Amino acid sequence: MSEFDYDLLVIGSGPAGQRAAIQAAKLDKRVAIVERKVVVGGVCINTGTIPSKTLREAILHLSGYRERGLYGASYTVKQHITMSDLLFRTEHVISHEIDVTRSQLLRNRVETIAAEASFVGPHTLRLNDIVGHGGRDVTAANVVIATGTSATKDGHIPFDVQRILISDDMLRLETLPRTLAVIGAGVIGLEYASMFAALGVRVTLIDKRPRLLPFVDAEIMETLAYQLRQNRVTLRLGEAVSTIELFTDEHGDRVKIHLGSGKQIVAEKALYSIGRTGATGALNLAAAGLSTDDRGRLAVNAFYQTNVPHIYAVGDLIGFPSLASTSMEQGRLAACHAFGVPTKSVPELFPYGIYTIPEISTVGRNEEELTEQGVAYEIGKAQYREIARGQIMGDSTGLLKLIFHAETRALLGVHIIGEGASELIHIGQAVLAFGGSIDYFVSTVFNYPTLAECYKTAAFDGINRLGG
Ligand SMILES: Cc1cc2nc3c(=O)[nH]c(=O)nc-3n(C[C@H](O)[C@H](O)[C@H](O)COP(=O)(O)OP(=O)(O)OC[C@H]3O[C@@H](n4cnc5c(N)ncnc54)[C@H](O)[C@@H]3O)c2cc1C
User: Fold this and answer.
1) Cβ atoms within 10 A of the Cβ of 350, count?
2) Half-sphere exposure (Cβ direction) of 163: Cα atoms closer than 13 Å
3) Which residue of 37, 116, 117, 355 could cross-link 11, Cys pair, CB 3.0 to 4.6 Å?
């Protein structure tokens, strides 16, 4: 019998914590997951990934946006779309996902504890009940910290939930604003900017960096910037926000944003989305011999161990790439490592899905990285409009771009913007993972008519560019 109450205690029930707990349970370990919210699922299910992606789907459907390429810019499924039209779908999906998660944890015999956890010592945690005021101490041989992040709030910004919002507040909007300023053109800021622009809201997007998402292929981001401008988004890049003030005039309650350059932007609402901070404040990390960086994040090694080897940290809490997809795999790998199970996962070859309108997905290296690394590469491109499925769908702006080695033709990267990008990317990801070349796309047969055919067209285009 072990000297500890649990073989593994997981703190946080988001994607990272869930997968760590379920993996340990599958190894027949005594495992519990501690969650301080009344519902399981973390930011992913309750305020981040799932609600924002469902909102996007509701916007695309009700606005008729997908069909406008065929039926014209005035096409719409519903006139006068309201926030309650949009949130109806979101609430339905969230409650279903919470239920699925609960049942998965139950089926795998993971004990779920509704409490806030904090360290008393490296193996001892205090669990303070979230209902009632009780609490108790428990011990665990291993601990996985998966407490995620919350939106970074700067002290000098007068957040009021009504006019100056963080991303969580977007799901509580009662009415659609006519104008929206989005401060911070990271993934979350860009997704919300493009969604509201698709609804006809006048959006201004502000970021101090001169280029949108520098980690994504420049050509793909130029295509997105073009699409945003087509939807009347004003891009204010290379501009820093100095102050934000709330004011009321004859047009109602509004926000005035002062930029360092002297420009002023007036909007009904402002979304402040400049990054996220690790949710470590309540953990009393010092009692376990741990400390964070200035953004509340924990450092880990390749096995997700902190500097205290039996304490692991996974998910958004450890920083880049901060995706639900990678968080799940990190959780699973941490649990495997804790119990000595060898794994073959390659988490560094992950795809990035960016659910802007149009959506973007990317895997492998981009042109800028390869140029910097001195790799001789060539590209091959396919526009969706060249492909029968693209015509049928009315997506005339989609683009799939392959990057491959100019001599060996080995695939080095795939970059896609357009409908279905986040699904299509997995074909390229598999070829990359198995070390394949673009010749695979030439010699294989794809269903017809599909967007997957873009791979073949892009491969032929690449070979033509080689002069072959
Ligand atoms: C608006 C938005 C959109 C996003 N869209 C996408 C997307 O499209 N695709 C994608 O892959 N990712 C997306 N993400 C990122 C994704 O949500 C995160 O990567 C993911 O949720 C991280 O999972 P996690 O398990 O690390 O933490 P979280 O999901 O944040 O879960 C952490 C949990 O820990 C709990 N907790 C914290 N402290 C304690 C404590 N002391 N005791 C007990 N419990 C505690 C919290 O209550 C929370 O439930 C999005 C994020 C946001 C905000």
Assistant:
1) 14
2) 16
3) 117
* Burial class of residue 460 in the structure, from the number of CB atoms within 10 Å of its CB (0-12 exposed, 13-18 middle, 19+ buried): middle
Cα-trace Rg, the chain: 24
According to DSSP, the residues that pair with 206 across neighbouring strands are 183, 236
44 lines ligand 1 (CB under 6 A): yes
The rounded distance, in Å, linking the Cα atoms of 128 and 427 is: 46
In angstroms, the CA 32 to CA 29 distance is 10
Q: How far apart are CA 191 and CA 161, in angstroms?
A: 19
Mind listing the pLDDT tens digit for each residue in 332-356?
Answer: 999 999 999 998 776 778 999 999 9
C-alpha pair distances (Å), 414 with each of 28, 365, 373: 40, 8, 17
Of ligand 1's atoms, which has the minimum distance to the CA of residue 43? 29
The Cα–Cα gap between 31 and 398 comes to 46
Q: Contact, 332 vs 31, CB < 8 A?
A: no
What tokens were used for 188? 């979350």
3-state secondary structure at position 123: coil
Answer yes or no: pTM beyond 0.85.
yes
**Residue 288: predicted pLDDT:** 98
Taking the chain (468 residues) in runs of 10, the rounded mean pLDDT of each run is 92 98 98 97 98 97 90 87 94 97 97 98 97 91 98 91 95 95 98 97 97 96 96 97 94 95 97 97 98 97 96 97 96 97 83 97 97 98 96 92 98 98 98 97 97 98 91
- Is the CB of 42 within 6 Å of ligand 1? yes
pLDDT reported for residue 406 = 97
H/E stretch holding 7 reads strand 6-11
Q: How far is the CA of 260 from the centre of ligand 1 (A)?
A: 33
Q: What does the mean pLDDT of the chain come to? A: 96
Distance CA 451, CA 432 (A): 19
Q: What is the pLDDT of residue 468?
A: 62
pLDDT tens, residue by residue, 14-25:
999 999 999 999
Element (H, E) at 399: strand 399-405
Q: Report the residue among 18, 165, 272, 316 best suited for mutation to probe ligand 1: largest number of ligand atoms under 8 A from its CB.
A: 316
Q: How many residues does the chain have?
A: 468
Please state the atom number of ligand 1 nearest to the C-alpha of residue 354: 8
- Segment (H or E) for 91: helix 83-107
Q: DSSP state, 410?
A: B
Q: Is the bond leading into 321 cis (omega within 30 degrees of zero)?
A: yes
Cis peptide before 15 (omega within 30 of 0): no
pLDDT in tens, 26-36: 999 999 999 99
Task: Please tell me the predicted confidence (pLDDT) of residue 79.
Answer: 87
